[in-house]
Amino acid sequence: MLKRFVPDPITLRAAQAVGAAIFALIVAYLARRAGIRLLSEAAVALVRGISQIIVVGLLLTLVLGSAQWLSAFVLLGMMLGGALIAAQRTKDIPGVLQVTMGSILLGAGLVIGGMVGLRVIDSAPATLIPVGSIVIANAMNTTALALDRFRAEVEAHTGQIEAGLALGAAPTAVVAPYVLAAVQASLIPSINNLRSLGIVWIPGVMAGMVLAGSDPILAAIYQFVVVAVLFATAGTTSLLCTLFVRRRAFSSADQLTLRMVKHEEVRERD
Amino acid sequence: MGKQADLERETMTANDRAEGTSSRDVPARSAANSGGDTALETRNLSREVMGKVLVNDISVQVQQGEILAVVGPSGAGKSSFLRLINRLDEPTSGTVYLAGQDYKELGSRELRRRVGMVMQSAYLFPGTVAENLCYGPRQHGEELPASEIDNLLEQVGLEGFAHRDVSHLSGGEAQRVSLARTLANKPEVLLLDEPTSALDDRAEREIEALLTRVLRDRHLTALIVTHDTAQAERIASRAILIDAGRLILNDTVQEVLHAEAVRP
Q1: Whether B136 and A255 lie within 8 Å, measured CB to CB
Q2: ipTM of this model?
């Protein structure tokens, strides 16, 4: 329909983006009427999203034809950005940026490096950057989920944790059940993705390849490779992240520092 | 006005007693000078968080086998003081001496094994009563024999409870398990942070009687934080009054409770 009125491909895509944004805003408006306030947040996110993706498009145009080493810098930049975003939700964890930075750099970096080394993914920028960005985004989401769950578990079980410490237990022993819960929770999306692959959803890489005219079987196999890589990334990132944050939750004298201030305020009220 | 002046005089005396410098102090002073019998001493213990002083320069000595009640209004800093002694929180300044040794020289895990703490709520770990009792000793590589588990449960009046799941216990039973779990570590000093405040009247009386008996039988040194002045009088021999994080009075329980009652 739009094609008839807008023959120029770039203008057509822009028009499609505006249409999709309007649709998203209508949903946000309806949500607001139901008492869920996300209209302004959705509007900001949409503007931010379109700006970011256009910048990335321009960047990719520059990078895709250039030397391979340049893609490493682009991926590094993406990892740093991912670390900053993942740290936003759990700002109250001491040194959270170092935690997200360490887990995303190591988790996504190791998996991308390993896959390139084993020639599972091509090292050409045209492949490495899009696939790498999917891996990094997955690492970012896993990190954010793991941290959020870990903090929630610690907050909900502060009494048990301090009771364990008061009995002379090591911090690693007292938080072990909560670390496990955080790792499990953060892996749920990746496990679900693996389980439902092809049944509930046809993921982006496969959809893109099919739309671009690739053989659907080849596209499906490549998609499986990507999803398996994503699962490996999620597992590595989640384990690293909980390992790093576990240390930050306690002082050198084995005192629970995470949310300590809040609990002291509560104690004072008591 | 006269009462206020008396109280201020007493307050100064209490701080002097805690420093061991007063000529007039009776119980605290004699205890302070008794040398080797001091089980625990806090020296200028303070804690400040985000500009708010929770514990302000508290110096107290507790003698071997003595039961010290820590009383004061809500939010006075009583629990904060107790947590500093167990080093669940870090003092901003000052320190604690355990049997004459600065607790910063001890590892925090070793300290917490020697200074046990029973909290307001039992905070039992999921599993059986026996598993909870074994938790502390297991942290330093010891397995608690079945006979010792039975012995501890007998002491807290829970014979035959070893294999019960803790999720099926009443509040009073859970608090008994919490006490037995702490005793399983064979602590030298016991910190009791309002151990009966979360219980109903009947369970409160039972736990109080149990505590009195266990502390007496084991000749344990203990500090008990309590809102209940009558309970302080029944359990403790000496008391300190804390308000706004400061040590206001350090004397016999009766004197401290009297002073608290007449405070404006």
Answers
A1: no
A2: 0.83
